[in-house]
Amino acid sequence: MSDWKRIIIAIDESPRSINAVEYVGSIAGHLDGVHLCLLHIYPEPPPGYYQTGATLDDYKNEQEERAKMLFGQAKKILQAHGVAPHAIASRCQIAGGLSISAAILELQTKEEYRTIVVGKRGISKAEEFLFGSISNALIHNGRDIAVWVIG
Question: DSSP strand E in 1-144: where?
């Protein structure tokens, strides 16, 4: 396994996502050579979205605006822990027909990140059975990587 300090932090608007950022910050703030990618993957527009006259570009713009706020909050947390601003990148993208976990793994493979950090989703066993779990899919489908699931 190569450099585990190339870390993707998959974030959303959940409190557990912020816990994951805090956790990584507490570790990464004390490391040299760390490279963090704050990643927000969003799903395709919901059914009926286009009936209002909105376009895919409208949807992407809405999602990117929400992601900017998430990235700003996450960067403040990481920098408060001592992570250098140049060590933090951010990316917002649509899942593009993939599951959220598959989109995360696609980026991880393409850009050679070796650690993925996610917040525990906090769903019931029934919901996990019906809809799956992002963290579970990352653990089972990731190859030659570490996956940190933060509660």
Answer: 6-10, 35-42, 88-94, 115-119
Which of 18, 58, 45, 57 is closest to 151 using CA atoms? 18
Q: What are the tens digits of pLDDT across the range 108-119?
A: 999 999 999 999
CATH topology of domain 6-150: Rossmann fold (3.40.50)
Here the tokens at position 8 are 């993707």
* Residue boundaries of the structural domains of the chain: 6-150
| 107 vs 145: CA distance, rounded Å | 13
**pTM exceeds 0.85 for this model:** yes
How many whole angstroms separate alpha carbon 62 and alpha carbon 56? 10
User: pLDDT for 20-71, tens place per residue?
Assistant: 999 999 999 989 999 999 999 999 998 889 998 999 999 999 999 999 999 9
